[in-house]
Amino acid sequence: MSAPVKIAPSILSADFAKLGEEIRAIDAAGCDWIHVDVMDGHFVPNITIGPAVVKALRPHSDKPFDVHLMISPVDAYLEAFADAGADIITIHPEAGPHSHRTIQAIKALGKKAGVVLNPATPAKMLDYLIDEVDLVLVMSVNPGFGGQSFISSQLRKIEAIRKMIDQTGRDIHLEVDGGITMDTAPLAISAGADVLVAGTASFTGGPGQYAANIKALRGE
Ligand code: DX5
Ligand code: ZN
Asked: In this structure, which topology does domain 6-218 adopt according to CATH?
């Protein structure tokens, strides 16, 4: 049997006035990873947080920090996020001209490296990157905001990438981000995802609900 799906709550949907507390609560509720959305108002139409905030949050959980960089240029900031405590760093190939080099740079910093595909980016983009990465992240919304609806055309991309990953024989995570709810989680899982990012669905209802939210996303 395959391992149970991992849940990576996106802190974009947490209460920004008490992020440390929110991370402790979602950790205690049984999440697997903490997903950190970094946006620059240039690569995506929203601005969130930078390395200083990641560093301040690091002591609040021992779980892996999955840092999703939606910034361009990206290369100049990799070291800052690595030093701040990121465990996994994911980048969009459109964020810079040399994504192969960027992936190598993340690995040279001793971190897991992932590539993110926007809804319009084909699976084929992975042809010459898949052997280099630890994780592929499929965006099931256009990046920039939480609370958007799942784009169901991404399911066949997830299926195609699952096949590509299996063909490598390597242990590469297939993560899906955007519009994950109790209804869409099973679709993403049956298409081949093994990590689900969930912002709204994790943090809805306040801390008393977090454990139930995570269980529901796992289909328990
Ligand atoms: C979107 C971000 C997502 C987002 C997910 O750009 O990458 O991680 O926070 O939020 P929900 O789960 O609410 O769609
Ligand atoms: Zn994200």
From this structure: TIM Barrel (3.20.20)
